[in-house]
Design brief:
The chain contains 4 helices and 4 strands; from the N terminus they run αββααββα. The chain is α+β, with helices and mostly antiparallel strands. It has 3 domains: about 70 residues, no CATH class; about 30 residues, no CATH class; about 30 residues, no CATH class.
């Protein structure tokens, strides 16, 4: 199956809406990237759900004066939630796409060790020792010398 050209797209079909524009995308080598049409359709649908709309689709929504009321615009359905744990970069699998109204998870708050009591800090250190993150405390070797 092939991807429909721009002038034959059903703008109401998210799988067609932007698939035609994703064909032969430029790469670092300067050549067009060849991608399976199934991926292009999924990517098109994903972009439409994220709120991307092509200008040709917008032109259809305009009245005789060329105006579009905001109520006629498509609604964003999904949003990107950055990773809620671990490093905040594109390779962290804790990042995800969720429904637009999904609340963001509560951020993880680390304690300020200056606000903890000695006992609380010692308990934290013991957890690190038990987890293998800290070596057990070994007193330094004696360097005392006997002088005659």
């Amino acid at each position: 199956m092939t991807i429909k050209p721009q002038d034959e797209v059903d703008w109401d079909n998210p799988e067609e809406h932007l698939a035609w524009a994703l064909q032969a995308m430029p790469t670092f080598a300067g050549t067009g990237m060849v991608t399976n049409h199934g991926f292009l359709k999924q990517w098109s649908e994903h972009l439409v759900k994220a709120g991307a709309v092509h200008v040709d689709a917008l032109v259809r929504l305009a009245d005789e004066d060329g105006n579009i009321h905001v109520d006629k615009l498509p609604k964003q359905q999904i949003k990107y939630q950055p990773a809620f744990r671990g490093p905040r970069h594109q390779y962290n699998n804790a990042a995800r796409w969720v429904g637009k109204d999904t609340p963001d998870p509560e951020p993880i708050r680390l304690p300020d060790i200056k606000q903890l009591t000695i006992q609380e800090n010692e308990a934290m250190l013991q957890q690190y020792r038990d987890g293998g993150y800290l070596n057990p405390y070994l007193p330094p070797p004696s360097v005392a010398e006997e002088l005659n």
